[in-house]
Amino acid sequence: MEAFVRGLPKAELHVHLEGTLEPEMMFEMARRNRVPLRFGSVEEVQAAYEFSDLQSFLDIYYDGAEVLRTEQDFFDLTYAYLEKVVRDGVRRAEVFFDPQTHTERGIPFEAVVSGISRALAAGRTKLDISSGLIMCFLRHMSAESAHETLEQALPYRELLLGVGLDSSEVGNPPEKFDAVFAQARRAGMLVVAHAGEEGPPEYIWGALDTLHARRVDHGVRSEEDADLLIRLVEERVPLTMCPLSNVKLRVFPTLNDHNLKRLLDRGLVVTVNSDDPAYFGGYVGENYLAVARALKLSRDDLALLARNSFEAAFLRVEERRVFLAELDEYVAAH
Fold it and tell me: What is the CATH number of the domain that holds 152?
């Protein structure tokens, strides 16, 4: 099973680059940038990765991001992620980054986006991994701050696949960001949004109807609304689920309780992703393996999850066809 999962061609559509900052790299960057850390060792950092909810995770997440200062830091972070996931069979990665986390600390927008983009380009040529970059707005910050961030991003429009919405969900509904997402759509950016992780199903409706999201990130609470489930099936709206993250943040008590298999069987376009793998105990391969074991997924289920990931990716028609053919060939050979 593990060999099958690792080699299975797949796309990852929900990963935060800042959430791939491993403790070892955190300490390395802290040393070279002379940034003091409140942790004394790698083991102490790892021991702190016990979270009671989304906010308790975000507190440590933003602490860790403090070490990211230069364009080279963002290059190194991104390329290290790509090197890891190619070993998990990832052929396409559509990655998130949070510019406000950095520009609020005085880091130039250009340093962030240029470092990430250079690494993605290097990944395409050296690792043969297709990629796209999605800029997320922090929903706990103001709509005005999101507008300022979009203005900073527009000169780099050709480097950005789309925009998303992340960070603290409860109390920050999608409607808060209606205007800035409308502006992003006018600029030709594709839209995704976190919704229905800790927030209610109404936030998923808002992501679809107000922000015009093409994908819903997480979306696990869609199961609470029968009409919403019907819509998600009929419109084939993808859900980018992150099982290990959901358990670590206590959205589900255990992986055995996760609704991924139920929603997959209902006909929803469910995908498996890693979210913030350095903090939540595994990259995309570990997430596939964990749900396969906990929910007793068959090889057909796993192949369907991989197929869904390519169907949900923002790919050109010919590129999607190539990846799906590669997937079919792999499954037939196994």
Answer: 3.20.20.140
